[in-house]
Structure formats: C-alpha cells, structure tokens
Specification:
Layout lengths: L1 E9 L9 E4 L5 E5 L8 H11 L20 E9 L2 E9 L3 E6 L2 E2 L6 H13 L3 H7 L1 E3 L11 H11 L3 H90 L3 H31 L12 H82 L1 H39 L4 H23 L5 E4 L5 E5 L2 E4 L6 H22 L6 E5 L8 H14 L4 E5 L11 E8 L2 E4 L2
Parallel strand pairs: 3-13, 3-14, 8-12, 12-13
Antiparallel strand pairs: 1-2, 1-4, 4-5, 5-6, 6-7, 9-10, 10-11, 14-15
Helix pairs in contact: 5-7, 5-8, 6-7, 9-10
C-alpha cells in the first residue's frame, strides 16, 4: 500500500516563495475550501506534477512556474511503501527531478524519461491514467472511466489487477519473436547459400573427375598447334630476312641516285640558260644591222662572225645537253629501282613485325594453356581436398537445417505463449474472474447513493444497464447527476479492487468540486455517508465551493489569496 504522508510546494502556480505544506495522512476526511482562484485545486496539480511530471488540469508545463518570481518552482511529495520511505522532488528553473529512498537521493538516470518510467513501474506501480482513476475525481480535466477509450480502460484495469506484467511479457515475447524471425531469415539465406555451394562443389568435382584429363589433353593439343604455328611463322620470318638482306645489298648499288639527279638537274638548268642567252644573241645579230641603242651601223663581218660563233656554241651545248639528258634518264631509272626495292623491304619488314606479334600472342596463349594445365593437374592431384571441402559444406548445411528446426520450434513455442498473453488469453481469464466482484461493488455503491439500477461491465468493459424504468440505456443516456453517481461508484470500486490486490492500494482520495457539479441534495448526503462510514483506511480530501459543510469533516483547510499569492490560511 502506498501511504501518502505530505506534499509541499513553492513558486508553483499562484503560490509565492514560501512553502505551502499539506499533511496527507492526518485526518480521515478533510474539506478544502476557498474562493475562485485562491489555489484550492493546486494540491491536485502539485501531486500529479511531482509524481508524473504533468499537472492534473489542462495547464502547460511552462505555466506552472509562478509568473511573479519566475524561478525556483519546487514540489515535494513524501510517501511510504511498507517500511521504505520515499520522496520525489521536482522543480522548474532550475530543472530538478530527484527520487529519495530512506533519505538517500538515488543516482539519476541519463534520461529523465527513463527515470520517470522506473518510478512508475517500480515504485508507484501506476501510470497517470490509473492514478487519476483511483486517487482523484475532478470536475475539470478528469476523464471518468466510462469516457475513456477501450484501450485506456483496459490499461487502468490491468494496473488495478496487477496484470500489466503479462503485457510486458507479451512485448518481450514479440521482441524475441522478431529476433527469432530475423535469425530464421538469416539461416534460410545461409541454407540457400550452402545448397548452392554443395551443388557447385559437386559439379566442380564431377568436372574434375570426368573432364579433367580431356581438358588437359585438349589444352596440350592447342599448345602444340600454337607451337607449330610459331615454327612456321619463324621460318617465314627467316626467309623474309634473307630477302631483306638481298634487297638491301641490291639497294646499296642504286643508292645516291637522288643526290646525283639533283646535281644533274642543276647542270641542266645552267646549260638551258646558256643556250637561251646565245640564242638571243644570235637572233639579235640576225635581226639588226644597226645598233638600236647608239644608231651606228654594225659591221657586216663582225655581225656574221658573231652569228657563226654563236651557232657553233649552240651546237656544242646541244650535244652536251643531249648527253646530260641521257645521264638524267639513267639516274631516274636507278632512283625508281631504289624506291621499288625500299617498298619491298618495308613490306617484308612489316610482315616480319606482324609475324612477331602473332608469335608473341601464340607464346602468351601457350603460357596460359600451360598454367591451366598445371591448375587442372593440381586439382586432379588434390581432389581429396575438394572432397573434404564438399563434406564440410554438407556438414554445415546439416547443422543449418538443425538450427532452423530449433528456431522454428522456439518460435512456435513463443507464438503459443504470445497467444496466451494477448488480451483474449490469460489476462481475459483473470479479468473475467474479477468481473463479478467489480459489478457487485459498483451496484452496491449505486444503491448507497439511492440509484437503483443494475449496472454491469463485460470483459471488454462495455456497460449494460437494466432497470424497471430504463430500457436500452447506456452510460451516455443518463443525466449528468446520474453519470456522477456511476463515476463515484466506479471510483470507490476501483479502490476496493486496489485494496484487494494491495500493489496499487493507496490511502489518498481527492475529489475536486464533486458537490459543486451535478450531485443533487440526496446524492450529496449519500455521498457524505459513504466517505465517512463506508470507505475504510483512507484519507479523503474534498475540494468545494459549498459552505455549511465544515461540521461534516474531520478537518478543514482554507486557501486564500493575499497580494496576488495563494496561501493556506492559519
């Protein structure tokens, strides 16, 4: 049982820098009163903020710090479970989240979310929804059990009946199954890979056994053929080299024709110029008897002598010119022969080079074939090793099949466990066991509040209403006052169930403005009787605007607002 003892706060909402402290385990019933805005409901927000890091009302976390001081917002709640004393401290500006056990501050988690989760699961053993269903009934932001979603209803009941462990186990099993499925996928891939390796190795060994020697002989045959081809090419090159040698010797005989032709051409040009000059001189003396420049007569004898000398020189030059042309023709023939021999030599040299390239290619192929022959010979010699490799593949394949069978058996086991731990499994059986008690208690409290209907919940926590004056009614069909009676009956029932289970039982019950909302006079009277005489071992706090009820409670706390700050009146 969680025994809440004390809560205090400062710079929280409208409270100032002085601590406001409320004793939670003092009187059985306590009435909290005060005007609007005086800070009556602050105790609710302080309680849920300290335990769950969120206010009870719809207030953002940034609005919790006092707007005047704007710093050092701090809330502390103290409670005990069995012999262990606990204190939770939270603050804003600076941010604080401390958990104390027996006056020793525990080491903080790296993540505040992880620390909050640890607090809810290992200490309080309730989450925010379950806590507000068991401890608090408020008129503002409180969501009654019947207005929760089906998922949240189940979550509250699982907290109450202490069966959330099955959900946790279910999540663990789901994670385990996910891991097993990943392992099975990995093993399936490994199995396929090993099957492929076994097949490839078997084919490889068959190839070695059946075709190894044939391949070796075929490669050796190709190697011999290439060797013969190399010999033929080398003989051909040798013949070509002999031809090149002979042509080179022959070429030497006609070497220099080009240079000689150049010189003869120069001589030919010179002779042509001389012949042209003499021809012009002869024509001058033949055509002129008077000097065209000085206009004097040219002596006839002189003119004729010049013509005769010129004609003799022309004949002499023409004879030499003819000999020169014959010499040029002879050298041109030599040059042509030189060019022809050069082409033949180039052609033979190109053929030799081509053959050499072919020879190199053949030699490379021979080396490759010899390497392949060596590898095949080695494989034939080492076929026992290849057999051992095949056996190793088969052994690994067999082990993989065994591992797959084990993992599939495991996943079948976990799948069966998963089906048991689902909502329709073990949890449903436990909930079904408690349903008669829950329905009995709900109707008992409804009758105490003078509301005579038969209100029952099924395994999915959907309601059925039976009454002489109500046909086909549901929770939503009732008036607000009637809904409030049902909400109160459920709240008291959840506390009864929690008391039976003990793990989420608590001394604290806080009701915010219950009297100020939908309860009529009769309902209020019956409610007061219940909290005073029926609910046992509880410290009940009722927050209300109504006056005239002070004598109905063991203790009265009044909140007031002085100079803008809320405080507890002395």
């Amino acid at each position: 049982m969680i025994l809440f003892e004390k809560i205090c706060w400062k710079n929280f909402l409208s409270t100032g820098n002085q601590y406001t402290e409320v004793e939670l385990d003092g009187k059985s019933t306590t009435l909290i009163i005060g005007s609007n805005g005086a800070g009556k409901s602050t105790v609710l927000d302080a309680l849920t903020f300290s335990l769950f890091n969120k206010p009870f009302r719809k207030i953002s976390k940034a609005q919790l710090i006092n707007t005047v001081n704007e710093k050092d917002c701090r809330v502390e709640v103290e409670f005990s479970i069995a012999e262990t004393k606990w204190k939770v401290v939270r603050g804003i500006k600076p941010s604080i989240f401390e958990i104390h056990r027996n006056d020793v501050c525990l080491d903080q988690f790296a993540s505040a979310n992880d620390q909050q989760k640890w607090l809810e699961q290992n200490v309080i053993k309730m989450n925010y929804k379950s806590f507000t269903q068991i401890v608090i009934l408020g008129s503002s932001s409180f969501v009654p059990f019947m207005q929760l979603s089906a998922t949240n209803r189940r979550e509250v009941i699982e907290d109450l009946l202490d069966i959330k462990i099955f959900s946790s186990m279910n999540h663990l099993i789901k994670d385990k199954m996910r891991g097993l499925k990943d392992e099975i996928r990995t093993l399936d891939l490994k199995k396929e890979s090993l099957n492929e390796k076994v097949k490839m190795q078997t084919d490889f060994m068959e190839k070695i056994e059946k075709r190894g020697n044939d391949d070796i002989e075929d490669k050796r045959k190709k190697s011999r053929e290439l060797g013969d081809e190399i010999c033929a090419l080398m003989l051909k090159n040798e013949h070509s080299n002999d031809q090149v040698y002979g042509l080179t010797k022959e070429q030497e005989k006609v070497t220099g024709a080009t240079e000689k032709l150049r010189k003869l051409g120069t001589i030919k040009g010179t002779l042509s110029n001389k012949v042209s000059t003499i021809t012009k001189k002869t024509k001058f003396f033949e055509d002129n008897t008077v000097c065209p420049t000085c206009k004097q007569d040219i002596e006839e004898e002189f003119r004729l002598n010049n013509i005769s000398d010129a004609q003799d020189k022309i004949k002499e030059l023409q004879s030499g010119y003819k000999e020169l042309e014959e010499a040029i023709k002879k050298e041109e023939e030599r040059e042509h022969h030189f060019t022809k021999i050069s082409k033949e030599i180039n052609s033979l040299t190109h053929g030799i080079s081509k053959n050499n390239t072919h020879i190199s290619g053949c030699q490379r192929q021979i080396r490759d074939l010899e390497s392949e022959v060596q590898e095949l010979t080695k494989q034939l010699a080492n076929r026992n090793t290849e057999h051992e490799k095949l056996e190793s593949f088969k052994e690994n394949l067999g082990k993989t099949y065994e591992d797959l069978a084990v993992q599939k058996d495991s996943i079948n086991y976990f799948d069966f466990s998963y089906s048991l731990l689902k909502d329709g499994g073990v949890k449903s059986k436990i909930i079904k066991k408690y349903l008669p008690l829950i329905n009995q208690q709900v109707n008992r409290y409804l009758q105490m509040m003078d509301f005579y209907i038969n209100f029952t919940l099924d395994e999915e926590f959907n309601e059925t209403v039976q009454s002489p004056i109500h046909d086909n009614f549901s929770y939503a069909s009732f008036s607000e006052g009637e809904k409030m009676r049902i909400d109160l009956a459920l709240l008291f029932t959840w506390r009864e169930v929690a008391r039976y289970k003990n793990s989420v039982n608590t001394n604290l019950l806080i009701m915010d403005e219950v009297f100020d909302s939908s309860l009529d006079g009769i309902g209020t009277e019956e409610f007061l009787k219940i909290i005073r005489f029926v609910i046992k071992d509880a410290n009940i706090f009722v927050i209300s605007h109504k006056t005239g009820m002070d004598d109905r409670f063991d203790n009265v706390l009044k909140f007031e607002k002085i100079k803008g700050f809320s405080r507890l009146a002395l």
